[in-house]
Design brief:
- The chain starts with a helix and ends in an 8-residue tail after the last strand.
- The relative contact order is 0.14.
- It has 2 domains: 4-109, Nuclear Transport Factor 2, Chain: A; 130-243, Nuclear Transport Factor 2, Chain: A, CATH 3.10.450.50.
- The protein has helices at residues 4-20, 45-56, 133-149, 176-188, and strands at 31-37, 59-69, 72-81, 87-96, 99-109, 166-167, 194-204, 207-216, 219-230, 233-243.
- It is 24% helix and 38% strand.
Length: 251
Amino acid sequence: MSSPENNTQRVLDYYDRVLQRGEITQLDQYFHPHFIQHHPQIDPGLEGLSTYLRVSGQWTHHIHRQLVDGDWVALHSEARSEAFPPSAAWGLYRLVDGKIVEYWHNLQPLPQKSVSGRSPLDGPRTVADREQTAENKALVERFYRNVIVAGNFAAVDPYFDGDRYWQHNALLPDGVAGFRKTMQAMALTGMGIQIQKVHLILGEGNFVLVLAEGTMVGKSYWTYDLFRVEQGKIVEHWDVMAEIPNRGARQ
């Protein structure tokens, strides 16, 4: 069985050789031939992924954060290619015996400005408190299901330390009060996302990532929400959200 360290290095090697150097013929060195991929516009298998990479062009990735949870490796990066503008990106990879057997990815173009003055990628990067991983994942899952999924934004206070909350979503202000007010207003006007399904909750130490999908103004979206936890309270949030193209084509 591959170690978490080996899995991380395999994914980093894939980013370097295939995505950034364009060595697409090496895909079979990193992916199982029957891997699962979740993007509805990419055809199944190595041939489908190869075609997508040839069309999208050579990528550059500046990795800001990397998390490992069991067989999963998650990379948070700034990505760009000939076909895509500079974007905040997540890549999630599940490995078995050194090969990628499942993966998710999502991109969101970087905004020109944000309410908080922060970008979707800046902020702390260092994984800490690994012994608290299970507790932090449980905390974030309770928050996500009881507040975000349920739309109960009046119930946020127990998950935070007063008004301390740093925000990297371009539309949301810092602070718990600002978060609550903005989310309640968006829900009342029909502009908030309605989460339909939580796919994955991954965590390492003080970072917990939630992958979910939902609907907003009649369209379907994937959302990747990253939370940083300190001493049992959520203190910081990043997200990447993008519309799901051709909804229902493949899950």
